[in-house]
Write a structure and sequence with these properties.
Blueprint lengths: L1 H14 L2 E7 L10 E6 L2 E7 L9 E7 L5 E8 L2 E8 L5 E8 L5 E8 L8
Parallel strand pairs: 1-7
Antiparallel strand pairs: 1-4, 2-3, 2-5, 5-6, 7-8
């Protein structure tokens, strides 16, 4: 029984490498119901529909598995524009994606990458 428990702990520690991506829900009403397509290494992994929030923005969080070398390409497609970011694990474990509306009417996707968790105030 002890061996099984030890094996389970080892597998969880080394086999569950993930990086976490949080998508910020905007406060700008013009970005309400905007669809984001998320690709990891050119494979579609998620669709995000942004919902405008009153006051404080909300966050939708997803975890993605890491390959052996820990390098990935994260792409976010919005309307007709694709934003591409390189992810290096373990230096960049926690990622925050935000959508902004520029003055010319185009949507810009921003990214913050950290090794430690983001602290969100509620």
């Amino acid at each position: 029984m002890k061996k099984l428990l030890l094996l389970l702990i080892v597998l969880c520690t080394f086999g569950c490498k993930k990086f976490v991506v949080s998508f910020e829900q905007p406060t700008d009403r013009k970005l309400d119901n905007l669809k984001l397509e998320v690709f990891l290494d050119k494979k579609k992994v998620k669709d995000i529909n942004l919902k405008a929030a009153d006051g404080m923005p909300g966050y939708e969080t997803s975890g993605f598995s890491i390959s052996d070398e820990g390098k990935h390409q994260l792409q976010v497609k919005v309307k007709d524009t694709t934003f591409t970011y390189d992810i290096k694990y373990p230096e960049e474990k926690f990622i925050l994606i935000t959508a902004h509306l520029k003055q010319n009417g185009k949507v810009h996707i921003g990214i913050l990458k950290k090794q430690y968790k983001f602290r969100f105030s509620k």
